[in-house]
Amino acid sequence: MQMRDILIVDDSRAMRNFMRRALSMTTLEIGTIREAENGLEALNLLDEHTVELIFSDINMPIMDGAVFVGELAKHEVKKKIPVVVVSTDSSEERKTQMNSLGAKGYISKPFSPEQLEQEVIRLLWEASDDDM
Amino acid sequence: MTTCKLADVLQEAATGVLETMFFAEASSADEDAATHNDAVACLLESTGFETGEFTIAIDREALQILCCAFYGDEDDPSPTQQQEMICELTNMIAGSTLSSYAPTHYCKLSSPTVCDMDRHLQTATKYPQDHVATINLSIEGGLLSASCSLRTKP
Predict the structure, then answer these.
(1) Which residues of chain A make contact with B72, given a CB cutoff of 8 A?
(2) For the purposes of burial, counting CB atoms within 10 Å of the CB of A48, is it exposed (0-12), middle (13-18) or buried (19 or more)?
């Protein structure tokens, strides 16, 4: 499996660290992991760097996850990057909202590294099917 | 929803978060053991369908052990790391509780903030007309207690 560069978007440094650790505990081939504290910072980072997968929180200052995903969908290149929402909010209403904005996956906290890996593999398989 | 149901949901949420993301076993604390020694507390507020607050308190030794598990680092966690971790723990327990307690309704959580123990103890008594729940869990290193006080939007 090819190395995947990843972007983690979360205002909690503790959570960004945990995501890094959880990803390292999976069998996934992870390349460079970049971080952003909010959606705006993430959009600016994506102007400079290419990533294959984005994990995004919802509740963030400056630009929250819903607005961030909506902004990605307006961009021809950025909208192709799969986004996995990572949130404590596991309501169907929220999942539906984020899906309608363009998010491809959703992980509710708390989650195990195994659950994270399964969601990433599912998304990457779907993305490779779309490319065929 | 009854107060008993809220306590069950809070307990299940706290236990699930501790086991899944902090790799920590938790069990209900005996009444005799449900007293904090040198604890750190954290508060966050909920608005929306369920309005109220959540507070978490952890004995400092237990907090350090949880930090090491969460960060995957055997070195003593810095005060900043400890604060960040208890804030994230509070956020996850509160979010997980509300997702079970009010699964079809929207609730917004504030950013968690570290508070003193007196503030944590107020949560169970501040709004007597609310649904209130307090749980005490024994974890490695000491006691973790969680309190919430919620008022449902009519």
Answers:
(1) 21
(2) exposed
What is d(CA B148, CA B132) in angstroms, rounded to the nearest whole number? 6
Give the pLDDT of residue B65: 93
Taking residue A5's Cβ as centre, other Cβ atoms within 10 Å add up to 14
DSSP structure class, residue B124: T
The CA-CA-CA angle for residues B135, B89, A85, to 5°, reads: 125
CB–CB of B4/B135 below 8 Å? no
Confidence class for position A93, pLDDT limits 50, 70, 90: confident
Give pLDDT < 70 ranges for chain B.
1-4, 33
pTM of the full structure: 0.88
Residue with tokens 């491809």: A104
Nearest by CB: B70 against A18, A59, A109 = A18
Cβ pair A71, A43 in contact under 8 A: yes
A132: pLDDT confidence band, cut at 50, 70 and 90? Answer: very low
Rounded CA gap, B17 and B108, in Å? 19
| B53, B41 contact by CB (below 8 A) | no
Report whether B148 contacts B8 (CB < 8 A): no
pLDDT in tens, A109-123: 999 889 999 998 888
As a whole-number percent, the residues of chain A with pLDDT over 90 amount to 72
Q: Which residues of A touch B88 (CB under 8 A)?
A: 12, 14-15, 18
Across chain A, where does the E strand assignment appear?
A: 4-9, 30-36, 53-56, 83-87, 105-108
Of B85, B103, B109, the CB nearest to A14: B85
